[in-house]
């Protein structure tokens, strides 16, 4: 397992995108991983790896999150690494942002992180090295037009991370956020489709307009985020806590 400080991990939103990439990278390193999400068929595909277990759950539901960790402890043991990765984004002009859109965005991105961290921490061994990591976004570090709810939720996640890191500073458990820029995932394709639908722009031009936000004129790859998580999960990162690490090609 090399220099990893952890041996077990749970990842929400683990059925697709960066969640699946992180799960496979950790599992390849010998970590016993559970992936969670609301689509069992996607989780089952990731769980074909011998070191990965699927645990369907809804991060917006308190009882579901508690049951998820109960199953994890029964099947794998206490988690050393908990990654709050489940997220969603919808766009709308601020004046047309409905209360339902606002609540959905907060429920998944903010409340989901809160519940995942709280229930995960409650079953972690506080005498052992542990890691709580949120996959946030550069939207937690700056503002973007038309995604006010998403930016507000991700800024709140960064605040949660910083506060909890201070609370746990005397323990061997660190708390950090990884903040990618636009990343090559299914969520990016949703953003492209939204631009195409609202502007009539071609998909190619829509992708180019998003890539240009990154000074390197490209999209972040899920593997880059996963490698950042691997470093945070290592023994070398024991003093890194309360940080919001931008993985964005210099955008922030």
TrEMBL record:
<dbReference type="InterPro" id="IPR020904">
    <property type="entry name" value="Sc_DH/Rdtase_CS"/>
</dbReference>
<dbReference type="InterPro" id="IPR002347">
    <property type="entry name" value="SDR_fam"/>
</dbReference>
<dbReference type="Pfam" id="PF00106">
    <property type="entry name" value="adh_short"/>
</dbReference>
<comment type="similarity">
    <text>Belongs to the short-chain dehydrogenases/reductases (SDR) family.</text>
</comment>
<dbReference type="GO" id="GO:0032787">
    <property type="term" value="P:monocarboxylic acid metabolic process"/>
</dbReference>
<dbReference type="InterPro" id="IPR057326">
    <property type="entry name" value="KR_dom"/>
</dbReference>
<feature type="domain" description="Ketoreductase">
    <location>
        <begin position="7"/>
        <end position="175"/>
    </location>
</feature>
<dbReference type="InterPro" id="IPR036291">
    <property type="entry name" value="NAD(P)-bd_dom_sf"/>
</dbReference>
<dbReference type="InterPro" id="IPR050259">
    <property type="entry name" value="SDR"/>
</dbReference>
<protein>
    <submittedName>
        <fullName>3-hydroxyacyl-CoA dehydrogenase</fullName>
    </submittedName>
</protein>
